[in-house]
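Protein Record: Sequence and Backbone Structure Tokens
======================================================
Scope: a single protein chain, as residues and as a discrete description of its fold.
Tokens: labelled as protein backbone structure tokens, with as many entries as the chain has residues.
Position: the record begins directly beneath this header, with no further notes in between.
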Amino acid sequence: MIGRNRMRRGGWLAMSALLAVGAMGATGAARAWDANLHGELGVAYDDNVANVRSGGPGRDDRRLQGAADLRVWLRPGPRTALVPSAGVEFAAFDRHRGLSQIRGAVQLRGLYRPGAAFLTPTLALDVGAGAVETDRRLRDGGDARVRVQVMQQLTTRLSARLSWQQQWRDGGVAVFDVSQRSAGADFDWRPGDAWSLYLGYRRIWGDLVTVAPAPSAAALAAARAVAADDVFDGDTALRLAAHGDVVTVGASRMFSPNWSLDLHLRHADAGADDLASRYRRTQSVLSVLWRY
């Protein structure tokens, strides 16, 4: 239930939203629009790229990843903002090169802050869609998501976000047609002007795709869809009903308003609804982030 890490843009975007909408509420005379370019280049290590069940033959890998997107800030009112964006991202794996991919995506974010007081929350609604091209046909496809967030500045240094999300993935075959919903909380703490520490938790319900060299009869019976995998030759991909928990912890060091270095660790622990199997996966990512 944990896939390729999306770049650590959430903290920056949430902070930008709080500051931008807060400034509009305070002054009522902000510029009607603005535009920013955001990007990432990083390296990552994943200890279970195939989502193999715990105790099975694990497959780890390293990857180079990057992303860039353009965001346009539109301010139709003193307490609202619309942020359409479009971008592209890639992941290049070292050994399992069939997992390498490029993805293009568009998103529309709406922001609303009902008041100008310091503790007034900011509400956000995101709607997005993308298309993925991989080195293998079965993992090609499209995706879409809807997310609702409540962003709250708790102190001048600490902020929090609560979120609910529904996402869908349409793959090249039914086993990669995935639907998931999740709810979570994130906290960002800035102990100084240059440093940011963050912690996040998500609970996920929905589909999990796992790869097995010789799936048991119970796993085949519980699977919602099955297909011969075209990346891990001789193995079988199964889509299972599952639930899981994802914890993220990280730190970011800002070197200027435009550049920062980010390091984070993400761990997922999932269980199949109709099996006793557990699926655990840990990713570590070191990235350079930029914005203009």
